[in-house]
């Protein structure tokens, strides 16, 4: 049988990894797919560099539209990234009747509804395993492996840069700024790390997982997003003393009122497996009614781990290339006409528990005033930790862990506590997730 012909749009880190793994494991991949899969065309602005990677047997062009226009190309792999030209090229490839594989979580999180609708109309597939958690097959697990389940929640460490920074801050007691520079020097963080450290990258991925888990449209604009730039090393130490570790989590939960979709730092009990995921590794926990809790762990980025996910999609499409489009697995797991209209809840309606750090005057009655405000707001306290004031110090840190409450109530309580003359600095608030 004639091999499936693939065109790569971009041959950077992931593109070169995809080409190399396909070439190295071609016999194994063919045995799984039932026919060969060959990269026969590559588009990249740096033609000379691209040719040095793929050799003389692969056609290299500087215009991606030449790949889309080639009638022999069956699958277009988009590895350009971003929202701009990538969106145009993906839509043009779909219109031309090509299947698409992409690692572009930003594109799908923002424009996925339009792209999936276009693909459904043309009867082609858009596969995106590589867009979330690199080499971890989490999309396939959510979309196919857990089909029998009603998924209740998922929580993931889905950005390796921020997890590396938090691990280093905890292990070495360094400041955020110092570890960020280290991450950039090691290549874990970009020169402009904003998408990573502000939680945007994780929110793109959480949006896609949430859509598949709960059968709702992709709604990145409704996600709550908070990064790690305001975390201080002292909070990481206090969390450790209380039996917790701080992780940046992407969380989505099904509630009676709607879907929670949020990314922010969390205190996680140190005994949870996910709390012990260190460095640039990724992990996703999924809790469902039939199977209970499952955990998926591995490399969330890198040339060959991401290439592994891209090639898995290529094999899936190859197997289903001639299948009736109506019998394929839907892009977002649920049939397009059976999507849910459950709303994404605003953060003020989310229920969770909290870690609060207050810098307070070291004098009698301070704790009573603070706990009185929380009691009046109907917020119950789980634990209190008060640092002994040092010799000559007139202030101390008061740490409070709360039980679950609605975020809106906590916002009001924090505003009231902040007005106390004995509260000497802005209150630090970190949400707490037990994940049990």
Explain what this protein looks like in three dimensions.
The longest helix has 18 residues. By secondary structure, the chain is α/β, with parallel strands linked by helices. α1 packs across α13. Helix content is 38%, strand content 24%. The mean pLDDT is 94. The radius of gyration is 24 Å and the shape is elongated. It folds into 3 domains: 169 residues, NAD(P)-binding Rossmann-like Domain (Rossmann fold), CATH 3.40.50; 162 residues, 2-Layer Sandwich (Dihydrodipicolinate Reductase, domain 2), CATH 3.30.360; 83 residues, ACT domain (Alpha-Beta Plaits), CATH 3.30.70.260. Strands 7, 8, 9, 10, 11, 12, 13, 14, 15, 16 and 17 form an 11-stranded mixed beta sheet that branches.
Notable traits:
436 residues; alpha/beta; Rossmann fold; Dihydrodipicolinate Reductase, domain 2; Alpha-Beta Plaits; 3 domains; eleven-stranded mixed sheet; six-stranded parallel sheet; 15 helices; 17 strands
SSE inventory with pairings:
Layout: E1 4-9, H1 13-24, H2 26-33, E2 37-43, H3 47-54, E3 59-61, H4 64-69, E4 75-78, H5 85-95, E5 99-102, H6 105-122, E6 126-127, H7 138-145, E7 151-157, H8 160-172, H9 176-186, H10 194-197, H11 200-214, E8 224-225, H12 233-241, E9 244-254, E10 259-269, E11 281-288, E12 292-299, H13 303-320, E13 351-361, H14 366-376, E14 381-386, E15 395-402, E16 405-406, H15 407-418, E17 428-432
Helix pairs in contact: 1-13, 5-6, 6-11, 8-9, 14-15
